[in-house]
Amino acid sequence: MGTFKPIGINTVIIKMTDSAEIIRECAVCVTAWICAAECMCDGSVLRLRDPPGVLGKRLKDSAETVVIGGGCVGVSLAYHLAKAGQKDVVLLEKSELTAGSTWHAAGLTTYYHPGINLKKIHYYSIKLFEQLEAETGQAVGFHQPGSIRLASTPVRVDELKYQMTRTHWHPTPQFLIGPEKIQQLFPLLNMDKVLAGLYNPGDGHIDPYSLTMALAAGARMYGAQIYYPAPVTGLTPTADGRWDVQTPHGTIRANRIVNATGFWARELGQMIGFQHPTIPVHHQYVVTATVPEVKALKTELPVIRDLEGSYYLRQERDGLLFGPYEKEEKMKLQDSWVRDGVPPGFGKELFESDLDRIMDHVERAMEMVPVLKNADIINIVSGPITYTPDLLPMIGPHQGARNYWTAIGFGYGIIHSGGVGRFLSDWIMSGEPPYDLIECDPNRYAHWTSVPYLCAKARESYGFNNVVGYPKEERFAGRPTDRVSGVYELLKDRCSMGFHAGWEQPHYCHKPGDNTGYKPSFRRTNWFGPVGRECKLVMEGVGVIDLSPFGKFIVKGEDSHRLLDRLFANTLPKVGQTNISHMLTPRGRVYAEVTVTQTAPGEFLLITGSGSELHDLRWIEREVCDGGYHVSVSNVTDEIGVLGIAGPKSRMVLQKLTDEDMSDTGFRFLHCRSMQLAGVPLRAIRISYTGELGWELYMDMQNMSTVYQALMEAGRDENIDNFGTYAMSSLRLEKGFRAWGAEPAEFVGKQALLEIKAQGLSRRLVFLTLHTDDIDPEGNETVWHNGEVKRSRARSEHDIH
C-alpha cells in the first residue's frame, strides 16, 4: 500500500508504491486523494477508504434513531444511544467522519464553564475521554496538563473570585492561584502583568479526529450502524410522528431524527421549514515550529487563556499553538452560507488565512509568552465554526415538528461532545432530560431571530469569548428585535432594558440625577439604588410593570379538561379562577411552572415565563399528539400585552378606571374577570407576584399604550410610577410563596412523586440573610457550614434595602 513518515509538526509524507508523493498536514487534514481512495492520517496510521459515492453496505430500512452528521457530537450521540441499549441506531454522514468543523478544531478540553449547568457537560466529557481508549482500543491523543485562566487586571481578579464562589458544590477541580504558582506551572510566561489565575487541573486538549474515530468504534461495537457517504436529500414526516429520511442509497423510516450537521444545520432544517439561527464564523489558530525552550521542558505546559489578550495558547509537540478571538469589527462571518448555503463539496476545506486580522492578538501573545517572538510559524489554520446568537448550542427536541431533535450550534464542539451525547441519550431513552439545561434549549429562538439579528449577535458573541463575565450581563447588538411591547416606545428612554426571549423589558427605571447606563460590576453598581427605590414604591404605594414577555397559550376544546388534568399536578381552577400549577416529568421532577386560568367553560389561559415559551409549548403539544386529545392550542404570546400593577394603593388606582368592584370581597385573590378599563376590554387576574396586592392586566397588544397612560394619569395622586424585573424578582423571592393543592387526577409524574414523598425529602429550600458591604450574592454561590459545602443558594437582605 505504501509507507509514510513524520517530517515535522503535523506533517506527514506518504510514499505510494507508484512513487507518488503527497504531503499531508494532519492538524489541517487537507483532503488527499491517492489512486481514487481517500487518505486519512492521524500522524501514526494511514487509512484508506472507498471513493466517495460508494457506501460499502446496504442501507437499513428502518431505525429507532437516525443521527444526521458525523462530527464528534453526532458520533458521540450514536455511541451513547447504542451503549445505553437502544437498538437500530443509525448515523448518516454526507461525506466522511469529522468533515465540517471537527477535523480542524484545536481540540481544547476544560472543566471550566461560567454557567452552572454546562459544567456538568464538560465534566462528563473529560471523564469519558479519560477512559475511551481503554474501552474502544482506539487511541484518542488526550493530554491533560491543566489550564490557567490569567487575570491581569483587578476586575479580572474579581471575576475569578466570583467564579470560585460558584464552584465548590460541583466536583470540578478548580483553584484560585497566585503569580508564584502560575510561574511554576508555566515558566515561559512574562509575569509583569499577571495578578492571579484560575487553575483547572485535568484540562488540556485532545485530537479531534482520533476522538471521533474512537467514538465511532465504540458506537459500532455496541451495535450502531454508521453510513458514509450518505447525504440526506429529503425529510418527510409521517402521520404517526415518524420520519422518512431520503438518501441517494435509499430511504430509512426513523422513529426520530437528530440534526447534528454542524454548519449544514440550517440547510437541513430548511428541508422541514425551520430557519435555525446558526452561522459559520472564521476562526484562526497559529502553529509554530519547534521552540527550543518548549522542547527543553520536562513536563507539558498547561493551556493558558489570556483573558485580556483574548487568546488561548497550548503546547503542540515541541512548539506552540495559539488561537485568538478578534473583536467584532475585525472578525469575519461566512454570512454568504446563510443566504446561499454551504458550497457543494465543502467538507475538509479551509478558508484563506489572514494573519493581519489577528496581529493585535499575536503581539499580545508574544508579550505574554516571549519565546513566541523567535518562533517560526509553520501553519495558520482558518476554518469555519458554528455560532448561535448567544454562543450556546441548541440541544434537544424542537417545537413544531414531532420527533425532530437538534444538536447544533457548537462553538466548542469537542468539549461538549461527550456530555451532550450522554445528555441527549438519557433524554431520548427516558423521555425527560437528566438535568436542567434550558439555556441550551433549541426553542429559545423563534420568528424574531432574523438573519440581520443572527449576524449582529454572532459578531458580538465571538468578540465576547474572553470579555469579563459579569452578573446580570446584557449584550446590545441586534436589539431591539421586532418583538417589542405596546409600551416600549413610552418606556425605552426611562428604563434600563433587559433582553428576554426577543423582548425588551425594563430591568429598572431611572430618575433625573441617577447614574444611568449599563455599568456591570461584581460589586453594587448604579442599579442598586433605583431598585431599592422601586421595591419601596411597590411595598408602600403603587407601581406598574410591563410583563408582556410572558409566554401565553389558549387551550380549548372538548378534551381540554382531560388534557390539562393529565399535564398539571394540581386541581384545575374553576371558571373565573386562577392557580399556579406544575408540569412534571415521569420521574416527578418539575418541568415547568404555569399560571392556569379557566376563562370560560373548557377554555384556559396558560401563562409561563418568557424563556420557557416554546419549551413549554412543545411539552404540551407532544402530550396532545401522544394522547389523541381533541383540543386546540394557540400561542398568543405576541398578540396579548400584559401590564402588572402592584402595591397597597393599586386597588385605588384601578377603581378610578372601572365600575367593577375591586374590593377584597368583590375581586378575590387568584380570581379572574373580563372587564373594561378606561374603555379598553381586557382580562384582569388578581395575583401576588411581588408579595403585595396586585393584578395582571391582559389586553390586545395595540391597546397597551392606552391602558398604561390611563393608569399613570389615574394614579397621579398615589404617586404611581414604573418598576422593573429586578425589583419584582427581589420582592417575590422575599415572599417565598408556593402552594400545592390536593390532586385527584392521574397526572404525569404522580407515581414518582408519591414514591419521593414516601421516601422522605433529602433537601429543603431555605432563605439565608447575609450581612455584606458592597458585594451581594447573585445565586448559585457555594454555602459552607461547619467546614462542609452545602448545596443551596444564598440571598442578601440588601437586595431590597
From TrEMBL:
All residue ranges annotated as the FAD dependent oxidoreductase domain in the record: 65-427
InterPro entries the UniProt entry points to: FAD-dep_OxRdtase, FAD/NAD-bd_sf, FAO_M, GcvT/YgfZ/DmdA, GCVT_N, TrmE/GcvT-like
Limits of the GCVT N-terminal domain: 493-743
Basic and acidic residues composition bias: residue spans: 787-801
GO terms under cellular component: mitochondrion
Coiled-coil positions: none
Location of the region described as Disordered in the Swiss-Prot/TrEMBL record: 779-801
Domain of life: Eukaryota
Record-annotated FAD dependent oxidoreductase central domain positions: 431-482
Name of the protein: Dimethylglycine dehydrogenase
Originating species: Cyprinus carpio carpio
